[in-house]
Each structure stands twice: as structure tokens, then as C-alpha cells.
Design brief:
The chain is of the alpha/beta class. It is built from 8 helices and 13 strands. An 8-stranded mixed beta sheet has the order 3-4-2-1-5-6-7-13, with helices on both faces. The model has no long low-confidence stretch (mean pLDDT 95). Bound molecules: nicotinamide-adenine-dinucleotide.
Length: 266
Amino acid sequence: MKPIRVAVHGALGKMGQTLVNALCRETEMQIVGATDIKATEDYLPLPDGSGTVPLSSDLEHILTTCKPEVVVDFSTANAVMPLVRLATERGVSLVIGTTGLSADDTKEIDRQAKARGVGVVIAPNFALGAVLMIHLAKIAGKYLEHVEIIELHHERKLDAPSGTALATAKAMAQARGKPFATPQQGKKSDSRGEQVEGITIHSVRLPGLLAHQEVILGGEGQTLSIRHDTSGRECYMPGVMLAIKEVVKRKGVTYGLDILLGLEKA
Ligand SMILES: NC(=O)c1ccc[n+]([C@@H]2O[C@H](COP(=O)([O-])OP(=O)(O)OC[C@H]3O[C@@H](n4cnc5c(N)ncnc54)[C@H](O)[C@@H]3O)[C@@H](O)[C@H]2O)c1
């Protein structure tokens, strides 16, 4: 089988560089181009020494000349909608890892993708351990009435709460089907974190951290903690590779990896 032709959007960023590295090791896919708003050279040297691929800040140029089948995006939230328009217009599938998209953005992406018969996978977290953490939290939330989420990330992360924490809260609330219990509070205080779907989320930003999340459920006389820690950006790569292989078979938005991993029905 011919390898899937992949371009990376945001290729000079931390996730983009990790992805370019990982793609060089894959036999079922081939990196054919790279885009980044910071690009100053016309070619990106591949880290395995196998050559170069075209690099540009002009996404349209890369789509036209490199003809990728899939663009993987790890850029910034306000770059996503222009990417979706340009890629779907050309029948190019998308794997979107950038966080900070609104529910309306996702709806609009689904509309554009369906209109053009193109697949898009949007995943706020590609780490398989994090996907399992959310899956387990959804089960636990049906049995324990109280929950809070602590998410901890490096100090350069732009959005708070994290996309993963928001996705966890929404998934848990939906799976439970009724509100979680809220603690008695005295005077209203911002230091109690942000309320999402009735669940309090605390966001910690510190150098030395990468991406971590703990879901703590409480009941009378007991707590249950479900925690996921990342120690390197490599943790996201198996999930991204799975999404690349699956997105070319799909139409419209597939949100999260649960369906692709068989944890949830389509
Ligand atoms: N889904 C996941 O599993 C996952 C994991 C880690 C990070 N993320 C998200 O991925 C995104 C990138 O994270 P990062 O740590 O690599 O950030 P980063 O700042 O290191 O990299 C972002 C890159 O995108 C480029 N960029 C910005 N605007 C652009 C545009 N308009 N067109 C093209 N390129 C543009 C920047 O120049 C930069 O090189 C963030 O939204 C982050 O939250 C998602």
C-alpha cells in the first residue's frame, strides 16, 4: 500500500517538531510538506537525514505543490478555521490537535467537512493514557457524587482550563446524566477554580511540568484518584498516527479518539 501523504501545520513548534520526527520513522505514512507562520527557509531538513521537504508560511502553496492527503495541525486556535477552509476545499483530510476551539468552531468544521465529503479528527488529547483516564472517569462519575479536576501544565500553555480538562468535565457530566453534588461554600471565591458542567477545575501553570491531570472523586469516607502524567511529547504520537490512518476513511468530524479505539460506538 502507498504511504499516506502528510503535511504538518505548525511544524516548527514543539508538537510539530515531535511529529515530524515521528513521521520519519513511519512506513505507512510520508511527510511531504510543512507549514509554519515562522518559516524563514523554503525547505525543512528531516531529522533522520533522509532529505528535506518544502516548508512555507503559505499554507495554500504547500497544499497545492505537495498535495498532502492529510494535514496534521498543532498550531494555534485562530489558525484553525482558515486551515479548515483551505484544506477541505481541496479534499484534504485534517487531524487537529490544536486546543482552544469552541463548540461552535467544531460544528462549523463538521459542516464544512461534510459539505466537501472530507474527514476531520479533532482530539484535545492524543495521549492514549489520557483518553483512558477520561473513559475511566466517566464510569466512576456514575457511582461517586463529588468530583474536582486538577490540571497541571507548563507555564507557556496559552489556554486554561486545558482542552483535556474541559473534555473530561463534559464527558463525565454527559455520562452521569444528572448533576454532581456541589460542596457547601461560604462567600463566593475565585480561588475555587472554574466551574464547567458543575465540576470545579483547578489550573496549575509551572515550569518543570509538561501535561498532567488528576480527576478526584469523593464519597463518604473515600476518594478515588485517576491520574495521568506525561513525561515527553512522544506520548501523543501513537494517537496521532492512529488518527492519520483512520481520518482518510471518514467524513465529517470525529471528536476524540474513543471511537477510533473502540471505547465508544460511532
Ligand atoms: N491534542 C493534543 O494531544 C495536544 C498535545 C499537546 C499540545 N496540544 C496543542 O497543540 C498546539 C501547539 O502546541 P505546541 O506546544 O506545539 O505550541 P508551540 O507554540 O510550540 O507551536 C505552535 C506553532 O504553530 C505556529 N503557528 C502559529 N500560528 C500559525 C499559523 N497561523 N499558521 C501556521 N503556523 C502557525 C507557531 O509559529 C509555532 O511554531 C496548542 O494548541 C496545544 O495546546 C495538543
